[in-house]
Specification:
The chain has 307 residues and is an alpha/beta fold. The protein is built from eleven helices and eleven strands.
Amino acid sequence: MSKHLVFGAGPIGSATALELAQSGHDVIVASRSGRGPQHENIALKSVDASNAEAVLELASGSTAIYNCLNPEYTKWATDWPPMANALLAAAVSHGSVYAICSNLYGYGPVDGPISPDLPLAAPGLKGRVRAQMWQDALAAHARGDVRVTEVRSSDYVGPGAESHLGERVVPKLLAGKGVRVVGDPDAAHSWTYTVDAARTMVAAAASDQAWGKAWHTPSNQPRSQREAISDMAAIAGVGEVPVKGMSRAMISGVGMFVPMVRELKETYYQFDRPFILDDSETRSILGVEPTDWKIALDDHLSPFLQD
């Protein structure tokens, strides 16, 4: 039985830990709060991931380290580097596989399906931060210091997911009120189920074919924001609600007063055109397939319906 160390107790970290624990592995979930999923094979630890010494000590004897951290959205530039550096250094020191949970920000604007072999050419700060994390890990891999892999997903659906289909949308939908979404409501968009991201993380960390490469989480056929909201309305048994888009100008105006909205300007391009993830290589090589869309949405809506 091997030891697996998961940093982050959010939706992806928790799902990754449970995926490993249910397969019989010993798992440590490390987070600032010390909270996390409950399972007989999971131990919960309170650790500051930017504390390199604490991370190094905790990682001793680990088969794999999973970076499922999610620092505050407005602080990526300051909070990500020390945490990423600490986890990479621990993996190098202990000979652990290092698996990074990431997103599609690093590519920047892309015309056509987004495949893992595209250059990381993001013009925005957040995209550059994510790209640098991977480039640092990949350089260490190329030197033979460590085995690394990265799993990139599109916007999430699933319990607790910080999603464009989450807190801003679902409560209003369930109340029969109109909703506003970022960009064009009718642009095709890929959505990734959190459990599928976790399954891909586990598969990539375990496969020597996956090391030294980035992989895209298998996701269902693209659905526009309007179509996804209509799908959720049908599942929840409520009527259709009006869906309107927020323009760049609107986001700029609201962003003057709301920091989180201001941050959306950098990734607006993801919603004003088709944003489609190419996951074909993951399916064919790692053998991961997406969970049925309705099951994913059932799971996504469940916490809201229980309130």
